[in-house]
Protein 1
Amino acid sequence: MEKVETLDFDEKPKKKRKLKKWVKILFSIITIVIVVLAIIMVTLSYLLSAPSFKSQVVDFKIESGLSVYSVGEKLKKEGIIRNYFAYKTYVKIKGINGYKAGVYKLDKSLPVKDIVSILTGNYYKENGITITFKEGKTIRGVAKEIAKKTNIKESEVYAKLEDKEYIDSLISKYWFLTDKIKNNDIYYPLEGYLFPDTYTFSENVTISQILEIMLDQSDKVFSKYKSLIDASSYNINDIVTLASLVEQEGIYEKDRKQIAGVFYNRLNAGMSLGSDVTTYYAFKIDLGSRDLTKKEINTYNPYNTRGPKMAGKLPVGAISNFGESSLDAVLNPIKSDCYYFVADKQGNTYFTKTYEEHQKIIKQLKETDNWLEW
């Protein structure tokens, strides 16, 4: 009978034991890699997070020609990001090549991804709230738009405008704001100074941020005319006030410079401006809602240029926000011998030299059913 050999347990092939050993080693390596990667991800996530839990908006300037990495160094220096190398890693991965020069409003409570998104112009497109403030709107209209599009209440807008310390801080920040806006007779100190435009704000925007972004835009527009403003015999508050009247009275841009010229003629002659739009504002009546009463027209109010004691005077302050063309009209008026103007239903404006000519035009407009009534 043939003898059969048997293997002892301890004599099993060494290959199996080696395989088991390598499986354990590989598992250990994978576990270590996963742990290390997890630590790296957690660390990177922390370093890319916001440096502050509390909202703190700051102006951040990017000079022309500044590289993405130089911007990162500046962001770290100003405390807007936690870590420069984490930022550098992020922009490399995202392929960010550059930013547009300018001044940005950055919040220290935002993470790196949102900061970079703001600097590339994508943040507000993806996450923002767009609000259009139209020319000729008053602060009341601005407050309504803000309340409609954000979580900010109208009452919060008015409360901010009544905050004297806040208004003082704005006066110290913007060259075109002066102590004249603190006159107790002025309804809203920033009336006329909030430039009408389409703006995009972050979802959690504050009222201070909205006001200052609008003032920043006013700064850009007003600065273009600074030499003319400085050379004028009227102060900046008077110029803004006059521009707000021109905005309300001049439906068409082509008429505004001549309207401004008429207002200057009347002021120089010591005449009342006789502007209905100032009376509407004085009594907080929305334009177009109804006609004025005789009592309203004849009641003194430092805004009401149709009332008593207003000969040769401008209203105490602006009556609306206005576009650039109205500011340009006030600083570059058309000189003429006209002291009167009136508009028809279509917004066409008729200019006349004498009161008799003015009354004649009014009569013609009424007879042809072209007289504007509300």
Protein 2
Amino acid sequence: MNNTYLKPEERAVFALRSLYRGYGYLPFKMSKFEEYDLYVRNKDFLVSDRIITFTDVEGKLLALAPDVTLSIIKNGEDRAGEKQKVCYNENVYRVSGSTHRFKEILQTGLECIGDLDSYDVCEVVTLAAASLATVSDSYALDISHMGILSAMLDEITADGDVRREIARCVSEKNTHDLARVCAEAGVSPEDTDNLCGFVGIYGDMDTVLARLSPLARRFEAVSVAISELTSLRDHLKSTPYADRVRFDFSIMNDMSYYNGVVFCGYLDGICECVLSGGQYNKLMKRMGRKAGAIGFALYLDLLEGLAQSAPAYDVDTLVLYDAATPTEAVSQAVAALRSQGKSVSAQRAIPEKLRYATLCDLRKEGAK
């Protein structure tokens, strides 16, 4: 297929489908409709809680699906020792990040669900980086670990409101408000300094891991997360994507749903996160599942903002014919050009605004 005339998001669909299938991720087909209650119970997990609803013929309140992950979890089942690996290209219905209006958005991504191990985490994160590289040469993948802040907070405070405020400040890299929240909550100066220092840890993988060591000495459970990030670092260094990966602990997903590694992907020219994912074992548990899970989604509507050079021509060859030209002659000319991989437009007159590289004139007067 000639991808010259496809939009960035259309090219991405074909390339990413091939990438994911190459790692054994099988296609998942989602129903466009789900019970509204599924999304109400998990609204904080969604990118947006604004949902299009309607009542079906039986009086049941349904919603146009705003998310794929929840449907995958709902329709799966736990099987000991097995992993469900699925990928998707699905339309979801929610407020677009680019237009801020309800829109049918094509979303692509994958999920790995089951008895997960460190390889599965490494594979999914690597595929996230590969997805960004497939779309653009200029990209960055920022990785965090929910276990670090969670471990710190477990030893600092049990107050849910304080924990949420601290998490908000960390996600905003707002050390001023963080110090204030800690002071009001009676957090010790030492732990306040640790939290404020944690906010500023960002950069290449080796540098960040070195800076985390003091936290592991103060907060015992942090060492588990550091070990997982070290394993991920070691794996990523064997891939072509290592120099595009950064550790950034302001990447903060809802702690009620996510655990472990979380990440966001960025492309040059687009100010928003275009890829988002992570481990969501807590969501699985909330939905009655025992398995672990990790996945990500690439928001294809945002790719419309990618700069792309317009093709020099609308079509490679214009085949021109008239009423006297035999239909078979036109068909044969078009087939011959298509067999060469050229795009062809057969016309009885030259369209005013059509740009073409070459002209194949089958008219009798044109053949003389």
Protein 3
Amino acid sequence: MNSISFYIVPCMMVIIITFGIAKKIDVFDSFISGAKEGVHSTFSIVPSIIGLITAVSMLKASGFLDIFSSFLSLLFKHLGIPTPIIPLMILRPISGSGSLALLDSILSNFGPDSFAGRVASVLMGSTETTFYAVTVYLGSVNIKNSRHAIPAALLADLSSFILSCIFVRMLFYGT
């Protein structure tokens, strides 16, 4: 199996080049025009990414995450959501690297087989860094008004937060 994965990328490159030659497409010019579009897209979303990174850094440094987590822990405790997961729930839609650091902290402190560790793992796999994704996707096509994209994505994240707790409890603890 390891040798198959080693050959996948070179085989795909040969298939694409062969297909382009068969269809009489100038493969190199197509590659260059695609690379130009990629560079243009990258530079068009840089201001949005810088703003998002600045906002996340300010959120972490201000201590807001800790204050908001302690406020929400009173509510979530009654819903059966583990307290260590709350900062991850808040940060996951905003920052992928920050939420990955929180996941590492949860797994180190509570263990991967703990309820908090399992919920955190399922949560990380079932949610998206919503604001980053919206920034990149809408910014790359110059859409300024996101309309319903952000509320719908945040609602999907919220349902993933709640369902990750429910399914981990059902699958591993039978309640």
Protein 4
Amino acid sequence: MRVNLSFIETAVPETCVPSHESLQIAHTLCGPYMTSLDWLPTVYENCGVKQRYQVLGRAVVDDVLQGTRKSQSPFLPGQEGGPTTAQRMAIYTQEAGPLALQAARKTLHSAQLAGSEITHLVTVSCTGFQAPGIDVLLIRELGLSNGVERTNVGFMGCHGALNGLRMAKAIAEANPQAVVLLVAVELCSLHYYYGAEPSKVIANALFADGAVAMLVSQRIPGSPVVASGSQLVANSEREMGWIIGDHGFSMTMTKQIPRLIKQYLREWIEGWLQSLGWKLKDVSNWAVHPGGPKILEAVQASLDLQDSAITDSWQILANYGNMSSPTVFFILKQQLQKPRNGLTVLLGFGPGLVIEAALLNHTAA
């Protein structure tokens, strides 16, 4: 029996921030030096993000834009380096669970499943830590059994949900009766960088908040999950990092990442597909995590893809930003709204530099 992925549902916070407001926020929060930077508007114009959603509510956004302090948020200007990590984690504890719950409820509703029918729960997040975690909230609020088997995939970065899918697939393969609920939630906005380091300012322009949930099972029809793959690019540890500091989690992304993707991606993908009995030309659909415009362009160049192959990636980046781990499944959900045949490859990139992939075969559905 094959393992299927089905009933992908997504959730985003209520507050939508358009790009022109994001630029104003950057001028205000990143220090006096930022007000004189002539390249900052270009960053926001060319980052590919037209709008994004964040758990920091409209009251906080309005305070930053208007110079008021009605919300009394720790994210307002005035504290060097911005909020402490403890302050950021307090908001994560408050907001991550409800957003994950929203996506998970939609999945169970779409599948017409009761919470008691879920046998395994896999949760994914790299933007916060709490214990008890969001898994306990999901068990309580969804009516899952207290004996549901839980696994948490933590701190894996933008490809974390692909790691979660690998775990869910292994569980479902081992147990034909298993129904795995996979939930990924990220609150990237909580790690907004207050400063003028260019690579981190660019990260500010890209990242956003969101959640996704889905089912993985042999019992429920859906998109057959054929395989997963992983590749650590040698000697790349300094190119991308996700480090816990005193003022949030710090993302490091060097200019070498697109070059490394161009150099190493095709050879690895071709070898991986060949080991499964396919060739690059056999892949009909690509769901590529939009880490940023240069990453999408590097993937397209490396794999010699047509513009149409990554249209959905560009659209999700424009409408939602880079939500880290859930993002690739926002893309897949959009793709599945139209009939699909053949092979689909999901691609993500994370600290290491590591390439993660999953292969779906819609022809076998």
